[in-house]
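Fold it.
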Amino acid sequence: MSKVYIYVVDRDFGFAPNPFHKLCTLATCKPIIRRVAKEGDWVIGMGGSRLNATGRCVFAMRVSNSITFNEYWENPLYRDKKPVRNGSKKMMVGDNIYHQVAGDWTQLNSHHSHPDGSPNIHNLINDTQTDAVLVSDYFFYFGASAIEIPADLLQKINYRNARHHRVFDISDVEPILKFIESNFTANRVLGDPFDFEAASARYSAKDNKVIVDG
């Protein structure tokens, strides 16, 4: 039976997940989810207190494929997911940042590198502990227009904002998925990311801090 992985989105730059260029991808952070999620599973990001979006859905993506970082890097289908730091906000937050050369990981100048573009080793180690990128061609991304999920549907699965992710059988979350699917259009970015104005910023998981370029 397919699974549903639900977690609280602390920051939302459009980087993890990245909903742009007609595909929603989760290529960084959440290494445990990326390791275990399979085709047909769902990943749902709920808003938290920092975003003032408790009980609201930021995104929901059905996994259509799980690929390695090298497959993600080399496939021209995902070329537009590579970050361009002097480009538009959408290009700045590209998540196609890792590949291996002679067995060593390289990290592209990106949201997860240092402000000078050099690799942030802590982020690199955290991200690449799971060599998997989740790709979705059927998703709902709401960003700052995060939708409120009816309280009774959340209560049925005993949902509470908490650290780490929770795993459910898809049958238990079906009412929530049906609510989303019946009320909203798939495969569209229905709102800018909450933190989109800071798209040029850098994030370090080492101290959980965001540094603004310049």
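Residues 170-183 form the longest helix (14 residues).
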